[in-house]
Amino acid sequence: MKSNAILKYPLMVVGTVAIDSVQTPFGKRDSIFGGSASYFSYAASFFTPVELIAVVGEDFPKDYRKVLKERPIGLEHLVTIPGKTFHWKGKYESDLNTAHTLDTQLNVLLQFKPKLKSNCEPEYLFLANIDPELQMDVLNQVKKPKCRFVACDTMNFWIEGKRPQLEKVLKRVDMIIVNDGEARLLANEAILMKAARKIQAMGPGTVIIKKGEHGAFLFHEEQFFVLPAYPLEEVFDPTGAGDSFAGGVMGYLAKTRDLGFENLKRAVVYGGIIASFTVEDFGLERLRTIRDGEIENRLADFRRLCLF
Ligand code: AMP
């Protein structure tokens, strides 16, 4: 029997823990808590405990660390090194679907050397949006066959800046979750159905393409599923929707331990539901106020809306 605390976490994520400055048509927030791994782990923690691998600088506020401690999120691999925390500044147009990056300051990410503790053996691994070289570093440290399923995310910043490194990662993952613009860029193909097939040919047998308020497509080997988005009357800040979606999908898969197509469909439904909470407020605020039963209530509502 292995007894170390790290084995409590069947799911692990590597990604950014960030300080974000965000502007949407509904307001502006400076230096709020963000990052792909922060959103992912908070969302996934509604389904399963999750271990987070990331780096922050000495300027990272203690209060932000406390936010992560509200949930079953393992922080043994959240390291602090000299320098400033990764900072992203973005702006959304009135349609709220596309983020325009105004500034990306990699800061401590440039010195980050992820090192997994020897007793750390996740069964599910998510390589969230971060430098593909760091994704590969972590991938090389997880043990097969203990690690059953690896998925990744990426964005235009890395597709354009580090394509060869990203292509190497893609060869070794089971699933990729990207948005429509990223899928088109990655596959160099405008038609999403074709883009997904091209991405499958690059490695991952399962491809999820998120389409913002228009839902998502799931491609699994030869099979295909279409998911509408949960319709909201108010959206404040789309930041983190993609990472929360991925957190919901992976959290549900790690909880249910079933990688079949029917369960993948349920996982994307949960991903969409969790993401619908994230966008209702800035940063992680709405996720922090999800009450018991709220996820299941929204799911029941969604089921009623989709039935015909
Ligand atoms: P999304 O779920 O796609 O809206 O992701 C939003 C989060 O991604 C923000 O909180 C940012 O801190 C983070 N982010 C932005 N640019 C990058 C990048 N180049 N690499 C990793 N994370 C990023």
Write the layout of secondary structure elements.
Elements: E1 11-14, E2 18-24, E3 27-34, H1 36-44, E4 50-56, H2 62-69, E5 73-80, E6 87-92, E7 99-105, E8 124-127, H3 132-139, E9 149-152, H4 156-161, H5 163-170, E10 175-179, H6 180-187, H7 192-202, E11 206-210, E12 216-220, E13 223-227, H8 241-256, H9 261-278, H10 285-288, H11 294-306
Parallel strand pairs: 1-4, 1-8, 2-6, 4-5, 8-9, 9-10, 10-11
Antiparallel strand pairs: 2-3, 6-7, 11-12, 12-13
The structure holds adenosine monophosphate.
Mind explaining what this structure looks like?
This protein is an alpha/beta fold and 308 residues long. Helices cover 35% and strands 24% of the residues. The radius of gyration is 18 Å and the shape is globular. The strands form 2 sheets. A 9-stranded mixed β-sheet has the order 5-4-1-8-9-10-11-12-13, sandwiched between helices. The protein contains 11 helices and 13 strands. The protein has helices at residues 36-44, 62-69, 132-139, 156-161, 163-170, 180-187, 192-202, 241-256, 261-278, 285-288, 294-306; strands at residues 11-14, 18-24, 27-34, 50-56, 73-80, 87-92, 99-105, 124-127, 149-152, 175-179, 206-210, 216-220, 223-227.
Q: Structural class of the helices, strands and pairings? A: alpha/beta
Distinct small molecules: adenosine monophosphate
Shape: globular
State the helicity in percent bands: 25-40%
- Main β sheet profile: 9 strands, mixed
Q: Number of helical runs?
A: 11
Rg, Å, rounded:
18 Å
E-strand count: 13
Order of helices and strands: EEEHEHEEEEHEHHEHHEEEHHHH
* Beta-strand percentage range: 15-25%
How would you write the strand order of the largest sheet? 5-4-1-8-9-10-11-12-13
Distance between the termini: 50 Å
Mean pLDDT, rounded to whole units? 95
- Stretches where pLDDT is under 50 for at least 5 consecutive residues are none
